[in-house]
Amino acid sequence: SNFAIKCGGPQIKSLDGTLYERDNTTLGAATVFVTDTDKWAESNAGSFISNSNSSFIGVSSSQFIGTLDSELFQTARLSPGSLRYYGLGLVNGNYTVLLQFAESSILNGQTWKSLGRRVFDVYIQIEDTISTIQMQDASTKKNPNITLTLPR
After folding, report:
1. Residue closest to 44 by CA, chosen among 55, 30, 26
2. Distance between start and end Cα atoms, the chain
3. Could you tell me if 46 and 40 are in contact, meaning their C-beta atoms sit under 8 angstroms apart?
4. What is the three-class DSSP state of 70?
5. Cα separation, 148 vs 97, whole angstroms
6. pTM for the whole thing?
7. pLDDT means over runs of 10, the chain (152 residues)
8. Of 38, 83, 37, nearest to 56 (Cα)?
9. C-alpha distances in angstroms, 43 versus 5, 78, 79, 82, 93?
């Protein structure tokens, strides 16, 4: 059961033919959403105090390097607390999970405002698969995307 998610955006087909399902439904402070295809779901918990962004979606007009599909990274799902995606109806077996990330908000990764601000964990089957990933601009490139394929 293959599926791809366009976090925070409309359905899109990448240059390699991958169809990314839409993830642009407005979420609330405590929401569970199941897609029309029943392949995946997401949950959000938390509310932004100083932000009236009720859709929990961030948009960037940046052009991202290192990818031919820059528009895949121009929207993002936001959450001040907990944001989780769930694969539904998966049978026991081995799966390859491809995670793609790009920094779209904090464009200068070397200031006091940005260091340590993108810290998160990835859990697959309740195991802490990748602990404390930090989005850092390790090179001199602007907005490098990070691709992780699991299992390693």
Report:
1. 30
2. 20
3. no
4. helix
5. 8
6. 0.75
7. 88 93 88 92 85 76 77 85 88 80 67 60 67 43 52 54
8. 83
9. 14, 11, 10, 8, 24
